[in-house]
Amino acid sequence: MSDNQSWNSSGSDEDVETSESGVGQPVVGVAELGGIISKWTNYIHGWQDRWVVLKNNTLSYYKSQDEREFGCRGSLCLSKAVITPHEFDECRLDVSVNDSVWYLRATDSEHRHQWINSIELHRAESGYGSEPSLRRHGSMLSLTSATSGYSATSTSSFKGHSLREKLAEMETFRDILCRQVDTLQKYFDGCSDAVSKDELQRDKVVEDDEDDFPNTRSDGEFIHNNNGSKEKLFRSLSPKGINGIDFKGEAITFKATTAGILSTLSHCIDLMVKREDSWQKRLDKETEKRRRIEEGYHSALSELKKKSHFGGPDYEEGPNSLINEDEFFDAVEAALDRQDKMEEQSHTEKSRIQRSSPVPPGDVYSTIGSHRFADKVEEMVQNHMTYSLQDMGGDANWQLVVEEGEMKVYRREVEENGIVLDPLKATHSVKGVTGHELCHYFWDTNVRNDWETTIENFNVVEMLSDNAVIVYQTHKRVWPASQRDVLYLSAMRKILANNENDPDTWLVCNFSVDHDNAQPTNRCVRAKINIAMICQTLVSPPEGDREISRDNLTCKITYVANGELISLTALIVNVRQANKCRGKLAYY
């Protein structure tokens, strides 16, 4: 083989020393190889001869063999290298690690075959590293560019690399840096050993010189010999070539490796910043999208709440009602006004004969009666007259709940057999009617549908007396509750005055009873009620000698309700109905 094709093959002293020290674990028998091989540089210079060295599982190249002390121009870690012989050119081979490719060309096919076998042998058997389990990655960056300081131009070519590739590069640089640190440490240890040996030799030379100068002058000066032994004392030992390590080349390579690490780290930081900006933009976009969706949702929800739902009972009353309390009462009053107008028109067209008989005299209702529920009726009447007419406080302990104009609503805490009853009481005043008229209008079943809007149907089960009847009625279903029906005794009584100053007082008492002709059914739930309507007529004297007219009449109403069908809303509606009755009572 010619000089240009010469090979250096030797067992490295460095490998032996490393194995003995236990720092690394090189494979015994893997020789360091070096030789001249052509390498493709660029399109201008083409193929150029370079000195290529295969050592410690690393393929490095130099400009020439004489310039090895200036450091290598590039290196590849062969752990993950791919060696590809050219398909058509018998002298060419390609060594690639990730996206870094070296195009090499031997002098002949046998020369190429030798290089391929040597590289494969190093890849298969080399295990050198600063740690026994050190991972190796292919070098993706030529150290030549690192030697030039890694300018912004050189690093810009790596902007397309992914973060994963850059991390692999940094691990490769770490492996190379660990080997370089081990090499430099070995060099420094050799220098330290050389200095120690030099100090021992210098001490020996000084002892020999003292033996050569036994005489001294009187003035204390030494007599020196000219045997040249002092030259040994000051002889400097050059550390160059200690353990065959090129310190200058290793220093240049170390500098290039650290520069490569800094450059790759800077590129990783750039990638992270760009990725963070990208994620921030996506986050802002998603946040804006979510804000628009939430605004659209709230807008649609508001529009949905504004819509009227007349198809279901929830719109009228219930926990799921879509209207507030004021709108609910306004709607009830508006419906009552429309119903009043329709009824007034109907009363105008009909004759008074088609209406029920006139109000019977008061003597009919002043008697207790002799039917089977007479004692129960009397007990209920006395109970209502005792507790219902009391104001706030007292034995009944009525508590004011609602006050609106002349109307007041009270509540009393009552509990029977562990069941909370809490009866409600409402008081109001109506001008132009008497208590007798209002109570008869409330009690008479012939006009029940004129003012009661919650009844689906009703019938009189039994006529006990002229002023007492048993009525069965079915109420309209309020979703989602089950439909209710009631069976109650309704009695009308005139309360006799104790003295002439007491007002004319009438009472209608409704309470639940049982009857064989109206047994509970599965279709409805039987409800229990206890209701009393007490009306007192107050007369204000007219001015002058004028006759008493309806303008001088005021009816004080006390409405007491206790039962499963009673609610504050129904109570208020029933009391307000009294204000609507003045026109109807004219026909009645």
From TrEMBL:
Domain START: 395-565
A Gene Ontology molecular function term of the record: lipid binding
Region feature (Disordered): 1-24, 339-362
Coiled coil: none
CC annotations in GO: endoplasmic reticulum; Golgi apparatus
Boundaries of every PH domain copy: 30-124
SMART domains linked to this entry: PH, START
InterPro entries: PH-like_dom_sf, PH_domain, START-like_dom_sf, START_lipid-bd_dom, START_lipid_transfer
Keywords: Coiled coil, Cytoplasm, Endoplasmic reticulum, Golgi apparatus, Lipid transport, Transport
Location, primary (coarse class): cytoplasm
Polar residues composition-biased segments: 1-11
Catalyzed reaction equations: N-hexadecanoylsphing-4-enine(in) = N-hexadecanoylsphing-4-enine(out)
Subcellular location(s) of the protein: Cytoplasm; Endoplasmic reticulum; Golgi apparatus
Biased amino acid composition, Basic and acidic residues: 339-352
Gene Ontology terms: biological process: ER to Golgi ceramide transport
Protein name per its UniProtKB record: Ceramide transfer protein
Organism in which the protein naturally occurs: Oncorhynchus mykiss (Rainbow trout)
Gene that encodes it: LOC110509680
